[in-house]
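Running co-folding for magnesium ion.
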Amino acid sequence: MASNMSTTEGDTKAPSQTSLNSQYVIQARNLVVEYDRTREKTKLVALYDFSLEVLRGEFVTIVGPSGCGKSTFLNVVMGLNKPTAGEVLVDGKLVSGPGKDRAMVFQDYGLMPWRTVIKNVEFGFEMRGELTKEAKDKVHHYIHLVGLGGFEHAYPRELSGGMCQRVGLARALVVEPRILLMDEPFAAVDLITRELMQDELAQIIVQTKQTVVFVTHSVDEAIILGDQVILLTGRPGRVKTKVRVNLPKPRSERGLRSSPEYLTMRDHIWNELSSEVSMTPQKGD
Ligand code: ADP
Ligand code: MG
């Protein structure tokens, strides 16, 4: 269950060289992540020379071919994966493990099926022995914020995919992390729910002013939500292109469909992405 927890205790330690008070909340510098392929007795390089900076309060979306290391990158920022080389700084400090400043929303929800909605959302506080009256008030607030009021005592099996995803979102938001890491959170929900949740997430983030790194395989979603879209190469993943999105907010796919600027951006990202997908070898996926 460890990798499915939205937050855990941990810390960041002093970096090798840093720029404190930096405008960047996240700085990934020349990351390399290798995995051992025990059966083949080889190594698989998931990320290579991966560098990316995220500004305070920025909503960054990441798109890239399947298997190019997107989840790997989020896990490194979360402190769940140690890079083989390079470093990630959060607020100028080297990441050496999970911390209260970061929370993750997982693609597969990562809920504990034996716990009710409220118990899933309370989990982070409970684990830290911080389930105070104030914490319980926050749990109540965030369950309502994601539209799950009335479902507090339901079990995950009684909920739709979209509702489970809302629980995952509430569980990450409730600890009020400065950084929200989201790994294809809406991939498994139907299109209508997806659009609704995109709208809701955008509204929530306007209020909370959190810094968000959001991985998606949808180019439309990347543009609708992102201040900046980061396009990765095929594996080993590196930043290929950065596209700044200056379209007015709030944005919706319906509203943007007729915007020439949106269509040009979409075409550009699609072309860049499709050239990477065709170049990505399938072996090792
Ligand atoms: P993405 O999220 O972009 O689809 P991942 O970061 O999940 O990609 O994975 C990148 C590559 O690393 C893939 O080829 C995947 O098979 C491999 N990989 C991911 N996690 C592990 C692991 N724990 N052990 C071995 N290989 C892994
Ligand atoms: Mg992934």
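Result summary
The two ends are 23 Å apart (CA to CA).
The pocket of magnesium ion (ligand 2) is lined by residues 70-71, 183 (CB under 6 Å).
Job closed.
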